Each structure stands twice: as structure tokens, then as C-alpha cells.
Amino acid sequence: MKFTCAISDLRDAVQLLQPVCSNKPAFPIVANILIKTGENFVELVGTDLDITIKTSIEATVESPGETTVPVRYMRDTLVKIKNVAQINVEVDDNNVIKITAGERIKCNLRGMAAADFPTFPVLSECETVTIPVKEFSKMLRYTGYAMSHDEQRYILNGICLSFGEQLDVVATDGRRLAKYTLPEVKSEKMSQIIIPTKAINMMQQLLMGEDPVAVRFSSSQVEITVGRNTLVARLMDGHYPDYKQVLPKTKSFSLTLNSGDFSNAVELASVVTDKNKQGVVKLSLASGKMKVSAQTAEIGENSAELETEYAGDPMDISFNPTYLMDVFRNIDETEVTMDVINPVSPTVIKTNENFISIIMPMRF
């Protein structure tokens, strides 16, 4: 195998694949990436057996072939080669990858035979939907922070995509929930899939350019294709909680807030929370105003006051500040609506009809 390509293209492709490859794989071949030539391109594949990513770059191919190379050493080698635009890659019969950059740089990396590399997974009996890349990125960003990281609640360690007359994208850790809805994305069959955290993180790395995202899914796998990049991931096995049951059906007051002002107030208050313990930020509601505050005996007290249309009796609601800040760090809208019931019932934050976040207050 022998080809010439832009070093930046090959470097970017290898860096894209590195996070999916296992550092301590059960099978040594999985620490490698597959490099395979096409007619005028080179295809690269990385996998940890649960997630597989395939990408390609333009290249001038002199002789076809395929091999595998340790992703760590390939990446580090390409990163260290400076001031070179094009490189030549040649692989001999012993799977030694010979990289030549200009007249002075020559690198040899020992690979393994491509025949031992896992085959690229193929979905069967799958559904297909297409989502604009900006919407796909937005739905992951608006919900991903609410995923659980508790192994005891395994089924919550991912994002649920519920297909049907619309697409609901949901994440929860049991104390908060985020739901983003795409009403224009429809599927003939009602179905629900749960994509694990690592796959979600890898998907976000693929969302570049303007190409739409083609989503294909079966009962056990999901595939997304964006431009030259394709990711296939094994789905989580289990039933996601019925998120519709926790959506509040009543509210006492609906408050309109400026996202920036409220977020700044929460971040200011959180400065004096004890980072070694679970912090607490208090929202104190009174006629026409909201005071956002926190205090710790050993540190001090910070507060900020905002105008609201609140017209009820004085009410204090306490929250984990991280749960509030996570919402506002990930939304784009400058104005939100906060629906409150009482100090112990779920509080709802909405940007429009497509997004809702539910946060449980802290109880003492």
C-alpha cells in the first residue's frame, strides 16, 4: 500500500478516531486503527467494539492495500511532524508503516495485519430519519448535561430518543430532566432507543459543516452519518423511565427571566458555596422580585436581585446551583420562562415549545 495525502487531513482523521479506541483493550488489535485505500481516498476506522467510527480523506493512491497501526503512536508521530504539507505513507509486507515527510523526516511504525481487525457493523431492519446538523447538535447540547453518571442507575447513563409523531430527546439523572423536541422529525413506527454516554460524546465530535445527519437505528444499534464520517454504536439494553409522567401538569406562577442576568446571579451566589459539599443557592420570591443568594459561614454571603412578575406570597426555593448553571450554559435563548409551584415541587424552565428542563428543589 502506498499513498500521498495532506498531513493535516490524516492528522485530523487520526485524532478523531483516537478517543474511541480503548487504551487497555481485551484484544490488542482494538488499540489500532484500520487504514484502507480506495480509488482516490483513504478510509480510516477505529473501534472499541461498542462504538465504531469510520472516516475518509482525499489521497493520491499509488498502490492499494490495508493495514492497522497503533492509534496512539500514529497520532503522536503526525502531531510532531512540523512545517510539512504533504506526506507519503507506504506499508510493506510486514505491516511496517513508513512515513516520509519532505527529504529529512522518515518514520517507521509497526502495525498489525488488517485481517484481524473487526468488521464494520452493518444494521439490519433499521429505521432512517434525517436531522439538520445544527438541530442534531442542539438537541445533544440541550440535554446531555442531565445524563446520569451513576453506575447503579445504568439505564440513565445515556440519552433517550423517542420516535413517533415527533422526536423527543430526553436525559435525566433522577433529580433533573431535560427534554428537547423536534416536531418535524417523524417516524412511521413508535420506537425508543437509548444511546450511551460515550457514544453521545463521540457524536458531538462529528458534527461539523452543513451536511445533514442521517440517523439509522435498529433494536440494538444506531448509526449516524455526517459527511465523510459514520458512527455506529451499540444501544443500551433496557426500558427508559416514562418521562412523560414527571412533566408537571400544574403551575402556580410563571416567571419570565433574562437568561444572562439570571445565570450571572446564580454564578455569583455559587462563589460562596462550599465546593467540598453540595452547594445550595436560594431563590427568594417576593412581590415583583427574585433574590438569588447563597451563604456559607466560613466563606460569606453573595446575592443579586432581579425583577420578576411574581405576585404571590413570599417563597424560598433552594437548588443545587450546578443544576441551574448547566441549563443556562447550554441554551442559546436570551429569555426563559420559569414555572414554580411551591418550595418542594419540581420547577420547570422553558425556552419555547421545544425545550423543557425540570429540576427538583433541595429539601432540608
User: How many separate domains?
Assistant: 3
Enumerate how many helices there are, as a single number. Answer: 6
Distance between the termini: 67 Å
Second-tier CATH architecture of the largest domain: Roll
What would a concise description of this structure say?
The protein is an alpha+beta fold. It contains 6 helices and 25 strands. α1 packs antiparallel against α2 (71-80).
Overview of this protein structure:
Helix 1 runs antiparallel to helix 2 and helix 5 (259-270) runs antiparallel to helix 6 (321-330). This protein has three domains: 2-116, DNA Polymerase III, Chain A, domain 2; 127-245, DNA Polymerase III, Chain A, domain 2; 248-359, DNA Polymerase III, Chain A, domain 2 (Roll). A hairpin with a 3-residue loop joins strand 15 and strand 16. It has an eight-stranded antiparallel β-sheet with strand order 6-2-3-4-17-16-15-10. An eight-stranded antiparallel β-sheet has the order 14-11-12-13-25-24-23-18. It is α+β, with helices and mostly antiparallel strands and 364 residues long. It is 18% helix and 41% strand. The longest helix has 12 residues, at 259-270.
